């Protein structure tokens, strides 16, 4: 007799990362429950699965408990863009703490394995470069980013305590900056802002002098790593990201060179608590999962640019 398909719960499944994960699990013949409060997610991202017998959409806020029968929980619910998580910072902290608490409680009740989407932001403004999992970070506990950074840190701590106290199977993924199709037009992060500005022939906005760095991973590579990680026996925390580090100015110049319109770079006031540099050390993921990102930055940028171009033309 064939094994019955795995039952997955994806919180934040209508969002950017979550909806790509929904696609991948559905295409592998697994069952998916997508749970979302639609704060930054949209039905548009998952509408192609509505009506499929293996797919269920539950509008729900993770700060409220829920009872479901599942084998695996992919806990992604939380706004990821600074402008969105700073919109209501108290709600962001609640989503991280209470949302993770509720999902760990569910995992305990039904014996599900749970993967928690943590972030490179747990390293704050890092004094160690590149960042490896052993580094415990340099986070401002009272700054404007702390609702998110500290929220993710306490959520990681909850995951470990549930594992130690209740033997829950946890996977903590420290995800670094990820980009690709389905980022919102009003997402407010670097790649979407600059690509949209370049398509519209507007100035490319850089906060500060542009010497700060980031390392951007294309969505397809990131989803590969999440799936391999969930299937592995390692609990993490595990860095998942692309170690190709570029300054914001280099990225702006690259996007400028891809544009058929003449665009300029406009320097704006630097953001409060903006980390100066960020690059993942990914040897753990490489050793444990045999994973490393494959999509080159200029290739991923081209795909994402085409996505925004279509979106802006269709007006949807
Ligand atoms: P996103 O904003 O596109 O998706 C988050 C989803 O969670 C949205 O669909 C939103 O509506 C939903 N959500 C938010 N609060 C909720 C709540 N209280 N209850 C139920 N649903 C809620 O962001 P994303 O880029 O897809 O990020 C997904 C996860 O990955 C987040 O936890 C984020 O912290 C983490 N992450 C993302 C990145 C990145 O670069 N995109 C980097 C590091 C970590
Ligand atoms: N950034 C920028 N212009 C923008 C948006 C972002 O210069 O229009 C900078 C931002 O100050 C930060 C970097 O790009 O230094 C990455 O920002 P993003 O919001 O994409 O991600 P995060 O800061 O959360 O890593």
TrEMBL record:
Functional pathway: Nucleotide-sugar biosynthesis; UDP-alpha-D-xylose biosynthesis; UDP-alpha-D-xylose from UDP-alpha-D-glucuronate: step 1/1
Pfam family, one: GDP_Man_Dehyd
Cofactor(s) for this UniProt protein: NAD(+)
InterPro entries recorded: NAD(P)-bd_dom, NAD(P)-bd_dom_sf, UXS-like
Entry's Gene Ontology BP terms: D-xylose metabolic process; UDP-D-xylose biosynthetic process
Localization terms from the record: Cytoplasm; Golgi apparatus, Golgi stack membrane
Topology of the protein relative to the lipid bilayer: Single-pass type II membrane protein
GO molecular function, one term: NAD+ binding
EC class of the enzyme, as a word: lyase
NAD among keywords: yes
UniProt GO cellular component terms: cytoplasm
Enzyme Commission code: 4.1.1.35
Record keywords, A-Z: Cytoplasm, Decarboxylase, Golgi apparatus, Lyase, Membrane, NAD, Signal-anchor, Transmembrane, Transmembrane helix
NAD(P)-binding domain sequence ranges: 9-303
UniProt family annotation: Belongs to the NAD(P)-dependent epimerase/dehydratase family. UDP-glucuronic acid decarboxylase subfamily.
Name this protein carries in UniProt: UDP-glucuronate decarboxylase
Highest classification ranks of the organism: Bacteria, Bacillati, Cyanobacteriota, Cyanophyceae, Synechococcales
């Amino acid at each position: 007799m064939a094994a019955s398909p795995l039952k997955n719960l994806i919180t934040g499944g209508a969002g950017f990362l979550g909806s790509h994960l929904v696609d991948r699990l559905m295409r592998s013949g697994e069952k998916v429950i997508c749970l979302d409060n639609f704060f930054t997610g949209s039905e548009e991202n998952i509408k192609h699965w509505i009506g499929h017998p293996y797919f269920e959409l539950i509008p729900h806020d993770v700060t409220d408990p829920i009872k479901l029968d599942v084998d695996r929980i992919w806990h992604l619910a939380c706004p990821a863009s600074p402008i969105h998580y700073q919109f209501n910072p108290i709600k962001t902290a609640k989503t991280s703490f209470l949302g993770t608490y509720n999902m760990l409680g569910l995992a305990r009740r039904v014996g599900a394995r749970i993967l928690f989407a943590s972030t490179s932001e747990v390293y704050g403004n890092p004094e160690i470069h590149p960042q490896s999992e052993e580094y415990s970070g340099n986070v401002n506990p009272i700054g404007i980013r702390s609702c998110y950074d500290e929220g993710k840190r306490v959520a990681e701590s909850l995951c470990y305590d549930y594992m130690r106290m209740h033997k829950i199977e946890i996977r903590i993924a420290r995800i670094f900056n990820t980009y690709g199709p389905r980022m919102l037009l009003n997402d407010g992060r670097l790649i979407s802002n600059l690509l949209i500005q370049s398509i519209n022939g507007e100035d490319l906005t850089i906060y500060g002098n542009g010497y700060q760095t980031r390392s951007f991973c294309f969505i397809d590579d990131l989803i590969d790593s999440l799936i391999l990680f969930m299937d592995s026996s390692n609990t993490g925390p595990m860095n998942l990201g692309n170690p190709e580090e570029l300054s914001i100015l280099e990225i702006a110049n690259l996007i400028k060179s891809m544009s058929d319109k003449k665009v300029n770079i406009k320097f704006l006031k630097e953001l409060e608590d903006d980390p100066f540099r960020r690059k993942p050390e990914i040897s753990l993921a490489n050793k444990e999962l045999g994973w490393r990102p494959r999509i080159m930055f200029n290739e991923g940028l081209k795909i994402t640019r085409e996505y925004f171009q279509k979106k802006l033309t269709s007006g949807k």
